[in-house]
Design a protein that fits this description.
Elements: H1 3-22, E1 27-28, H2 35-43, E2 63-69, H3 74-89, E3 95-101, H4 105-114, E4 121-123, H5 128-134, E5 144-148, E6 154-159, H6 164-174
Parallel strand pairs: 2-3, 3-4
Antiparallel strand pairs: 1-6, 2-5, 5-6
Length: 175
């Protein structure tokens, strides 16, 4: 084999690896995230894109779908309508979706004018990447979605664009 063939094979292998990572199914994270990481998530002072402090008291005791995203991230933008659809589907069933924007407040405000959602959007700020890393996102990539039980345990997480049917199934099993 010549050098060019090796480069092509390595390139294809890298693409296959990335495709596997970003199309992976939900990965069970039970027991892999520390209790202090969950406490840090719930005790963080979350603010809306308008700078108002969000009342996170009503986040605990629910099945929580936390989606870390950015307006600059194409897969994040693509999955927003699916997340919105599922939020409506599970409304009244003790399920809450929360979007954590890893972005600037002005970008998020502009994005939400074009793509409004009914669930709370919080600004990740300087701590956003530290929090999603502590919640299991070792790749530091977006989107990253975490499913948290009413008792505050990580049930599942997904790096990359969600699959609506997989997320629906994970939520139903958490109820």
């Amino acid at each position: 084999m010549n050098r060019r063939q090796w480069v092509v094979i390595c390139g294809i292998s890298l693409l296959a690896l990335l495709a596997g990572i970003f199309s992976s199914p939900w990965i069970s994270k039970i027991g892999s995230v520390s209790e202090p990481a969950i406490k840090a998530f719930f005790s963080n002072e979350w603010h809306s894109p308008d700078g108002k402090e969000l009342d996170t008291q009503n986040w605990s005791g629910k099945v929580l779908v936390v989606n870390f995203w950015g307006s600059w991230c194409p897969p994040c933008v693509e999955e927003m309508p699916e997340l919105e659809k599922l939020q409506w589907e599970f409304s009244g069933q003790n399920v809450l979706f929360v979007g954590i924007a890893i972005d600037s407040p002005s970008n998020v405000r502009e994005f939400l004018k074009k793509t409004p959602v009914s669930y709370p959007i919080a600004m990740g700020g300087m701590n956003g990447s530290q929090i999603y890393k502590a919640l299991g996102n070792t790749q530091s990539a977006l989107p990253y979605t975490v499913l948290i039980s009413p008792s505050g345990k990580i049930l599942d997480s997904k790096l990359g664009k969600i699959n609506e049917d997989e997320l629906r199934k994970s939520i139903k099993s958490a109820l």
